[in-house]
Amino acid sequence: MSYHLKLKSTSDGQSRDDEREHLIAIADVLAKALDTMVRIPGTSFSIGLDPLIGLIPGIGDALANLIGTIILGVAARLRVPRIVLARMSLNLLINGVVGAIPIAGDLFSVWFRSHARNAALLRAAATRPDRETHPDWFYVGGIIGGTVVLMLLAIAFVVWVVAKLWAMMAL
């Protein structure tokens, strides 16, 4: 079954712009529902469904990120640059991985707001086709580079612990 919207042809491309704005508006509403739906009284903070759903042990964060992938799907439908899709995917991955940590992960979700970030990236990429993507490349490269460094440090630490345990057993 196809979910593509049927567009009426116009000479000025107005229907395509209307569809684009409609899809971006859907992403904005979804991001608001997931990240900033309710203002906490007496503070400047607001929360959405993401940190609340994340409180459900085991499946909460996965479910919130699954809902958040709708924004990613809208971005793909609007044919934003692949590097922007990669950055949006990394935002969801970071939110999902850190969000899996009980309580601290939910607090992180309140601060990080991956869905609002993704909606902003979508709007910028979809409304300005000549948008510069160097910051996106830097972000993705930084995340990948940081992950590699952390993995190498973890491996070095494990090797060091094993060597120390081996030396203690050899005595």
Question: How would you describe this structure to a colleague?
Answer:
By secondary structure, the chain is an all-alpha fold. It folds into 2 domains: 14-131, no CATH class; 133-171. Helix content is 72%, strand content 2%. It is built from 7 helices and 2 strands; from the N terminus they run αββαααααα. It has helices at residues 14-35, 49-53, 60-77, 82-99, 104-112, 114-127, 134-170; strands at 38-39, 46-47. A hairpin with a 6-residue loop joins strand 1 (38-39) and strand 2 (46-47). It is globular, with a radius of gyration of 21 Å. The termini are far apart.
Q: Considering DSSP H and I runs of 4 or more, what fraction of the residues is helical?
A: over 70%
Strands of the largest sheet, in order across it? Answer: 1-2
Quick one: biggest sheet?
2 strands, antiparallel
Task: Count the beta strands.
Answer: 2
Reading the helices and strands in chain order gives HEEHHHHHH
- The overall pLDDT, averaged over residues, is 86
The rounded Rg comes to 21 Å
> Which regions are unreliable across 5 or more consecutive residues at pLDDT < 50?
1-10
Tell me the fraction of residues in β-strands, as a range.
Answer: under 5%
Principal-axes shape call = globular
Secondary structure class reads mainly alpha
Give the total of domains: 2
Distance N to C terminus: 69 Å
Number of helices in the DSSP assignment: 7
